[in-house]
User: What shape does this take?
Amino acid sequence: MQDRLDAHVTSVGDVARAKRAVLVIAIAQLLGTSLWFSANGAMRDLQIAWQLSASGIGWLTNAVQAGFIVGTLLSATTGLADRLPASKVFAVCGVLGAALNALFALCSSGLASALVFRFGVGVALAGIYPLGMKLLVTWDPKRAAQTLALLVAMLTLGTASVHAIRALLSTVPWQTVVLTSSVLAVLGALLVFSLGEGPHARRSGNRRFGLSAGVGQVMRISEFRAAALGYFGHMWELYAFWTLTPLLVQRAFANGAAASASTVASWSFLIIAIGALGCLAGGMLSKAVGSARTAALALTISGTLCAVYPLSASLGTAAQLALLLVWGISVVADSPQFSALSVKACPADKIGGALTLQNSFGFFLSACSILWSTSVYHALDVRVAWLLLPGPIIGLIAMLPLLRKRPRW
Assistant: This one.
């Protein structure tokens, strides 16, 4: 009897520790990913100071995406994502990213030099976002869909946070806005470093392997391929939408009184940040209908908005902002579900590399869609949304094998 009581107490204690760890990792993810769009939070200032067009803002965003792609490819192909402790990689990359972000604020003299520093920030983020997902699984592998939903919700808030900082610090130099995100990233690194690895951590050993011998194995798994292809379609839309959000907000106010920088920043924050609620709602829905159906529903809603939003230009500011809020909820709600599907499909010792590789190609596609959409924005205006529509369509088609299966998680 006493043994049963001890086992029950131990089990309850383990669950409580796992929940605390998940919360710490999620908060650290929020703080660390504030680096991602720090330049976009200063968009209006940079447009004036460096005479940047929408295309220039797109290049600043894409520099981060390119660095992230390079970082994730190096991590996946060398096996570092599965050979080194995720908590230490996260912490080191958080501090490195914060330093490079600070150099962007203090040492950039124009677009060319800024691109170099933003690229470095992207490389550092490759050790924050996918390794944060792996770290969560080491603490609570049985609730992957729900814990990853919380993590991506924090990523979404981290992405939006720079717009909130800009709105709150509307009178300070743009450098202060950027430096604030560096401070947040260092705090996130310290949190994860103090936490350490979870009890379910598994590493692939010290052997060196490439794609063909390591991560490439998971591409032979049909469920992983379907989840990855669905994720790629989702990524074509997501980051381009987040990049375009301040421009679409400015456009929504175009027929009325001109919006101040603070107003644009506040609405941009709301539209991106509300995606965190979409992630959490998707996590709860996945318990009932499964991750595949939850992701498909979110893709369907966001894809529909890609199609109809260009028709809203004559509806007025309120209607356009309302549609953007709904779009913001749905556009990221599927992201954690795709990651959960991939985690479930992969062997435990390949999860870090598989997620890292999936992220890498997904962000490559996002870089392409950002470059294309920002380059033609001034010519297409709100019709630029139609360029994002192929992502949800292709993603839904790729997911059909998963949707035919009965829910397993």
About this structure: The first helix runs from residue 2 to 32. The two ends are 34 Å apart (CA to CA). The chain has one domain: 18-194+211-403. The domain at 18-194+211-403 is CATH 1.20.1250.20 (Growth Hormone; Chain: A;).
